[in-house]
Amino acid sequence: MSAVSAAPRRWASGAGSQTAIPSLFMRGGTSRGPFFDARTLPDDLPTRDAVLLAALGSPDARQIDGVGGAHPLTSKLGMVRPAGTAEADLEWTFAQIQPGGDTVDTSANCGNMLAAVVPFAIETGMLTPAGDRTSARVLTRNTGMVAEITVPTPADGSGTRYVSYQGPARIDGVPGTAAAVEIGFLDTAGSVAGALLPTGRVRDTVDVPDIGPVEVTLIDNGQPLVIVAAERLGATGYETPAEIDADTALKARVEALRLVCGSAMGLGDVTSRNYPKMTLVAPPRYGGALSTRSLIPRLCHQSIGVLAAVTAATACALEGSVAHDLADGDLSGARIEVSVEHPAGAFDVTLGRDPGDARRFTRSALVRTARLLMAGDLFVPRSVWDPATAPTASALQKDSA
User: Which runs of E-coded beta strand occur in 29-70?
Assistant: First the structure.
């Protein structure tokens, strides 16, 4: 008979067959996934990507052998390290893994997961909190974008400061309330497509096979979006995500439009890429500026992504755009408040516009929430990565994703 210990103990290391990687499992906005100190991951990018796929359980669509949630919103992860430049305190690389895919996409950004970066850095000792509120500048290596993020860091009875996740902030798409994570984006125009308006126009007409001419706004203010009137594709713009996901004919029309627009935006063949995202728009119903249904890119988002909301809000403020034609409210001036309606509620965005140039947006601000869900080691098969033969990245080495 085997001996049984009566005292609780830490889990076994699995040293014989598995590699343990320190990780925090975190919710950022309406997304969640594991966060890693980038310096603990393999230096070699193909090996790193194999580790990340194994960690989430892809390419199995169920992700049953990993920690992915079998949906694009819960098949994400973040890699964080101290910044190596004067412009930022932290660097992070966002990775999107499709549940049924076998690639790691680090070409775009995720504003929801971004909300968890500073909490992760403080929890792991990478960043030292200062005062009741701690701010840090975060460089997104995916797109080169810099954000200033502020989180509450009160002191406990001994004077030690910690990240507080409790508070009154409520964001649609997440139950309950939490502490506010304030995010300010600077100069996000052209994050992937190279310009706010990749074609130089606020409205384009593209010819789509089996559909004909379609008027769109092609825009990138942190996320490349194709904005199209839902009615033009045979939808209302008020469908539930489940209704859109079940409508194969509508999704086929959306994908056909996406492929044409990807090329028009200078992004090339986007068949295997996660961008541009598709945004079906309609007049608002609940007091906001615009109703949206966002596809990411082939499943409907349960709400809307942070940078998609910023970009859709920007389109609302551009006279002549498809979104502007359908939007309500005062969308003029140097400071613009835009409430973007989505299936789970609304997303409020504040835009700063150059008074001398109506097409130049200098800042966007919003509130998200985040929470640490679990901390420990994430195990991957040693056959995928054996640190003894494939060393981790050094603290000085840059991630080239």
Answer: 31-37
Q: Taking a C-beta distance cutoff of 8 angstroms, is the pair 137, 87 a contact?
A: yes
Q: Buried b vs exposed e over 82-103: b needs ≥16 C-beta within 10 Å?
A: bbeeeebbbbbbbbbbbbebeb
- Secondary structure of the chain: what % helix, strand, coil (to 5)? 20, 35, 50
Contacts 24+ apart (CB under 8 A), 143-147: 143/108, 143/109, 143/191, 143/192, 143/222, 144/191, 145/109, 145/185, 145/186, 145/187, 145/188, 145/191, 145/222, 146/87, 146/88, 146/186, 146/187, 147/114, 147/183, 147/184, 147/185, 147/186
Q: 270 with 256: CB under 8 angstroms?
A: no
Cα 20 to Cα 43: distance, rounded to the nearest angstrom: 16
Number of Cβ within 10 Å of residue 246's Cβ equals 12
Does residue 186 fall inside a structural domain? no
Segment 242-285, tens digit of pLDDT: 999 999 999 999 999 999 999 999 999 999 888 999 999 999 99
Domain co-membership, 74 together with 145:
yes
Q: How many domains does the chain have?
A: 2
CATH code of residue 248: 3.10.310.10
Is the Cβ–Cβ distance between 368 and 151 less than 8 Å?
A: no
Does residue 185 fall inside a structural domain? Answer: no
**Residue 397 DSSP class:** P
In 3-state terms, what secondary structure has residue 151? Answer: strand
Q: Which of 364, 337, 233 is nearest to 293 (CA)?
A: 233
Same-domain check for residues 165 and 230: no
pLDDT at residue number 395: 34
Q: Report the distance separating Cα 108 and Cα 93, nearest Å.
A: 9
Looking at this protein, which amino acid is placed at residue 309? A
pLDDT lower than 50: segments of the chain: 394-401
The C-alpha atoms of residue 30 and residue 174 are separated, in whole angstroms, by 6
- Please name the amino acid found at residue 143: T
pLDDT of residue 6: 63
Q: Are residues 86 and 232 in the same domain?
A: no
Q: List the domain range (segments joined by +) for residue 228.
A: 204-349
Q: What does the pLDDT read at residue 396?
A: 31
Rounded Cα distance between 131 and 150, Å, is 11
- Same-domain pairing of 225 and 130: no
- How far apart CA 279 and CA 237 sit, in angstroms, is 9
